[in-house]
Amino acid sequence: MVTMLFIALGFVGDAVSSLSPSDQEINSTSTNEPSARATLISRNETGNVNDTSNEARKLYDEGHALLKLKKFNEAIGYFDKALAIKPNDTGVLIDKGVALGQLKKFNEAIGYFDKALAIKPNSTGALSEKGHALVGLDKFSEAIGLFDKALAIKPNSTKALSEKGDALLKLGMTNNTIDVQKFSEAIGLFDKALAINPNDTGVLIDKGVALGQLKKFNEAIGYFDKALAIKPNNTAALNEKGRALSKLGMTNNTIDVQKFNVAIGYFDKTLSIDPNNTAALSEKGHALLKLGMTNNTIDVQKLNEAIDMFDKALAINPNNTGALSEKGRALLKLGMTNNTIDVQKLNEAIRLFDKALAINPNKTDVLNDKQTALDALG
């Protein structure tokens, strides 16, 4: 589902995908909760596993349990053993594809969904999962076609409804602009899914993400709160609520310190559950960066705390362009404190901006920050 972010970008159930706004690319790594994707596709969608031998069923069950525990490589090992016994079991083929998708091996995953579809062309599970993998490859229009096919077979498939909504959100977020029509269509799909299952935390979060992208932050928080009432430790909902509060904390270029501190509390709760959550690390860094520049004053301690958060995020994902550019921004501020120039900090900031631009050359805010640093160095 929408995962992120306001990003978070695409898993059914408890997850949120990483569709983030331009200033929140720090969430380029997903805030997904992958165990939620381990739905009982093979049992509920294909029923095929019930026809296997006892040994194959046992192997499948072991793999499925590992999939739910996010042990994707181990799960794949069990699915391979099950497929060695019954190679045409569509349920196992789909679940192996899901595990590969979680490892971001989207093309390999599509191969397994295609195998399942060759056996059962109308498997809504395989259609939806292939669509999800195509979203991972940024093939949004092609993915939407598969979700439409799944919905033609099963109009009340909450998976297909929510996944199509997620694809529309991503398709509607081009060049840092919002296609309101696509976002409205996505929200309509989320509403249909919620009419079927009002307690689907993933869809609640996705609708909140969409509302946040439309700058309806208070409404968005209402949906994150609904998700948290069902699952208080849902890290996606915690992160997204913190992000919405951060947005509310910035009004007319003034900083609401209280809202930012409350937002940091939500990021801290996420990190207490998942210390390596790069989205929470980066978002906390972003909030600290804002607090370090309150009312045109520089708080050196807050900026250094922000840099520490970005460093932790970059240790996990060195190519996180948001964390790279935000760390550069913090160093830029520290390098121009009290009307003095710290050449070392400014050069380091430029290095980080260059690295971010090598990954995404179209970031005008990063280009502007780099020029500011170059001008300061003369």
Kindly describe this structure.
- The chain is mainly α and 378 residues long.
- The protein folds into two domains: 1-34 and 105-244, Serine Threonine Protein Phosphatase 5, Tetratricopeptide repeat, CATH 1.25.40.10; 249-378, Serine Threonine Protein Phosphatase 5, Tetratricopeptide repeat (Alpha Horseshoe), CATH 1.25.40.10.
- It has helices spanning 41-46, 54-68, 72-85, 90-102, 106-119, 124-136, 140-153, 158-171, 180-196, 201-213, 217-230, 235-248, 257-273, 278-291, 300-316, 321-334, 343-359, 364-377; strands at residues 8-9, 17-18, 173-174, 177-178, 250-251, 254-255.
- The strands form three sheets. A two-stranded antiparallel sheet has the order 1-2.
- The longest helix is centred in the middle third of the chain and has 17 residues, at 180-196.
- The model is unreliable at 3-52 (pLDDT under 50).
Sequence-ordered SSE layout with sheet pairings:
Blueprint: E1 8-9, E2 17-18, H1 41-46, H2 54-68, H3 72-85, H4 90-102, H5 106-119, H6 124-136, H7 140-153, H8 158-171, E3 173-174, E4 177-178, H9 180-196, H10 201-213, H11 217-230, H12 235-248, E5 250-251, E6 254-255, H13 257-273, H14 278-291, H15 300-316, H16 321-334, H17 343-359, H18 364-377
Antiparallel strand pairs: 1-2, 3-4, 5-6
